[in-house]
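Two folds, back to back.
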Amino acid sequence: MTEFVNLGMPMLRYEVGDRGVLHDRPCSCGRPSPLLRSVTGRTADFLVAADGSRVAGISLIENTLTRYPGIAQLQVVQEVVGRVELNVVRAAGWDEAVAAALAGVFRDSLGGAEVALRFVETIPREANGKYRFSICRVPGVRSGA
């Protein structure tokens, strides 16, 4: 968020990659600025299902990380439609039942995609210090669209 009450100079950032829905009502404080109803994800988080529809990768990650034990970190990478690779940092509680359930969620959510699990020690962080939850590299598809 950028505050505009700073008398120095506000720092404006453009194209941060967040997606959201604006509210159709004004803020109760009386300010005329648009009001955000909800944040729906990040533009780079979308994966491509078998039918060509977009699936929010961040939602899949959040749902599986909170539902299944034994996952310390998780990242999904898609190079082609119909296949994803899950980079998994395992934790206490990981077993083959978790692996099967995790693969099933991604397979079903992406229209029957092949799911490969890749076990890693850590998921590398980007220059901003965060790791990307989902990466779409499908040729001809802008992940930010």
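---
second:
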Amino acid sequence: MADNLKVEDGHVVSMHYTLHVDGKVVDSSEGGEPLQFIQGMGHIIPGLEHQLYEMKIGDSKKVVVAAKDGYGEEDAEAFMDVPRESFPETVPLQKGTELELRDQSDHPVYARIDSISDENVRLNMNHPLAGKELHFDVKIASLRPATEEEISHGHVHDHGHSH
């Protein structure tokens, strides 16, 4: 019976969540579709994934994830000074401005302005939630075993949508 399904590796979990950091909501699925992922495949941050085992449909839980089990501690090496004149005029040079850059392999890299001097702009390449304790409110919306195809592809397939 589907009634006694619990979160375990190889199950597709649909989960509503709200993430609070420093007392503010930074992300939430409320009012939208739940997050879907295959448990045990590292699709979500490890500190949260580990806490979901044994939960059933309709179960709610508060999960506190330490920085090291979330987005990592802030890396003091992940700062970069860029000459001010290399910024396009469209970029507001203010602390906290978020930028999307491209690395050598053309992958997006996110950074935000940490400080500005006369010559340089210092960029912080850390994830915005690095070094932060994460407070999740989670609720399991639905559960089902993943199909063999989903497991082999490593992601959830929407039924009725062809990719």
